[in-house]
Amino acid sequence: MSTPKERIEITAPAGLDAVRLRADFPILNQTVHGRPLVYLDNAATTQKPRQVIEAIEHYYSADNANIHRGVHTLSQRATDAYEGAREKVRRFINAADLREIVFVRGATEGINLVAQSYGRNRFKAGDEILISAMEHHSNIVPWQMLCEQTGALLKVAPINDAGELILDEFHKLLSPRTKLVGVVHISNALGTINPVQEIIAAAHAVGAVVLLDGAQAVAHAAVDVRALNCDFYVFSSHKLYGPTGSGVLYGKRELLEAMPPYQGGGDMIRMVSFAKTEYNSLPYKFEAGTPHIAGGIGLGAAIDYVTAVGLDAIAQYEDHLLRYATEQALQVPGLRLIGTARDKAAILSFVLGRIHPHDIGTILDHEGVAIRTGHHCAMPVMDYFNVPATARASLALYNTRDDVDRLIAALHKVNEVFG
Amino acid sequence: MSDLRDLYQEVIFDHNRHPRNFGKLEGANRHAVGHNPLCGDRLTLYLKVENELISDVRFEGMGCAISTASASLMTERLKGMKVADAETLFGRFHDLLTNAATDDDTASLGKLTVLLGVREYPARVKCATLAWHTLHAALANQDHAVTTE
After folding, report:
1. With a CB-CB cutoff of 8 Å, which residues 304-363 of chain A face chain B?
2. Quick one: which of A46, A142, A290, A314 is 20 to 30 A from A191 by CA?
3. pLDDT tens digit at each of 419 positions of chain A
């Protein structure tokens, strides 16, 4: 059997050598508008190391076949690689059981799956779903749709001026009527790290299940779903140095077992006749149709990559870099940070005087610096801070102090142009 | 490499800093709200239309330099213009910005040509056309908010 040769050769002695890791990311080696690219839009999507690109290339050039059905060699290899990736995911988030790992298109699909499969047949008028005011649209809209379908009520726990969840208010909103709490682990618009352990314990105390949106979290901190004791956890591969179009829903087995399928089709059945269809077991019950096989394998390679670097080393390195970036940014005249939580990760959201973030983004792009500008799919957060949009620089393991210095110089240039 | 100054011309800075015809228009008989969901820009356009003539026009809202300048320049241009001519100008401006019209006959745009720099910045074209889409909606007397999407 042909398996991709072991490509992970990274050692993380003391800390993390971002300059060396950077060489793993071919895309970073280019100029934009005549200047070396500084990529600071990692909260939107991260770049992919060659180890991930090669794993996908290897799959398509050596092993491509449909999974779970062929008796031929390629199908077996493809199945082994895809299921091998599932085991990597299980280990990565420390789930107890492989059957608790459902491959989906991304965090968004994972939330929709839970809303429709868990909530739709269970929730009724008078039930409540509690989210926070810093949620991404993907952790708002599926619940609004569910509320419309079931008559349940959506409650929103407020945030303070630092962009932190107001825990007192959160506790007040919890009641036996609360059936599900959906909270972002790390906010994409503010960088806030939520006190998820306390949230989960409090939710469980009133009998609610908890879904954590881990889209931003998994690339920046080690996640242990068993230690957290969360009921559902979702994340996307592409924010974890893996390919787009693949992601994971983790669910506690007893919950997933009791949930009906989300979509019908091939692979999710055990036996089909026109009289009756018997569904497949977990996790396949939730995986109708041929999945994004290369996406799953690429995610597995990305997990190998970040695991080899070390999540703790990444978290520590990015924390230092964020502190440096914050200090430097505050020296830029007119700059105001949006999101100043005490527990914060990898994200610097800001406004600059009266200069619109889109103008900042265009000028920074001219300086070769890629950032995100806009509402970051978190319009309620923008409303709270009374800004139409922010500029957001978000860090990854390959960013360096030089990148931060280039950002700061470019921001001075913005002030100069608009001076 | 395109020059940033082709996009951010002095006229644009001037109109961004000091938008003309800014604020609510008392006695307006047409208005519309324009919204660019991509960046959160939102503007309200007020028109006073009498005998198919735009006798007055004002706008308010928050936007980037390009969208603010475009709205400001548009209001300057529209005052005293026939409704039909305004619609024609909207079509011409839109076509030139979105490269639907490829000829270089931009003379009809007059001062609005300073906005043609956005053609090099596809992500910013909607900033320049927001006010114009809103104008189109206001003239059609659409009450609901229009978007650039």
Report:
1. 355-359, 362-363
2. A142
3. 444 444 444 443 457 999 999 999 999 999 999 999 999 999 999 999 999 999 999 999 999 999 988 789 999 999 999 999 999 999 999 999 999 999 999 999 999 999 999 999 999 999 999 999 999 999 999 999 999 999 999 999 999 999 999 999 999 999 999 999 999 999 999 999 999 999 999 999 999 999 999 999 999 999 999 999 999 999 999 999 999 999 999 999 999 999 999 999 888 888 888 888 889 999 999 999 999 999 999 999 999 999 999 999 999 999 999 999 999 999 999 999 999 999 999 999 999 999 999 999 999 999 999 999 988 888 899 999 999 899 999 999 999 999 999 999 999 999 999 98
Catalytic position from the list A44, A377, A379, A387: A377
What is the rounded CA–CA span in Å between residue A336 and residue A351? 5
Q: Residue B133: which domain range?
A: 4-146
Q: Find chain B residues with C-beta within 8 A of A355's C-beta.
A: 65
Are B127 and A358 an interchain contact pair (Cβ–Cβ within 8 Å)?
A: yes
Query: Considering only CA atoms, which of A401, A413, A222, A223 is closest in space to residue A323?
Result: A401
CA–CA dist A115, A148 (Å, integer): 12
Q: Which 8-state DSSP code applies to residue A274?
A: S
| Chain A residues with CB-CB distance to B123 below 8 A | 362
CA–CA separation, A191 and A178 (whole Å): 26
Task: Verify whether residue A147 is a known catalytic residue.
Answer: no
Give A-chain residues touching B13 at CB under 8 angstroms: 418
Could you say which residues from 11 to 40 on chain A have a Cβ atom under 8 Å away from some Cβ of chain B? Answer: 33-34
Task: Map out the domains of chain A with their CATH numbers.
Answer: 18-47+310-414 (3.90.1150.10), 57-307 (3.40.640.10)
Number of domains within chain B: 1
Å between B83 CA and nearest CA of chain A:
31
Phi, psi of A276 (to 5 degrees): -160, 145
Using only the alpha carbons of chain A, give its radius of gyration.
Answer: 22
Of B1, B8, B68, the CB nearest to A33: B1
Q: What is the CATH number of the domain that holds B27?
A: 3.90.1010.10
User: What is d(CA A414, CA A368) in angstroms, rounded to the nearest whole number?
Assistant: 13
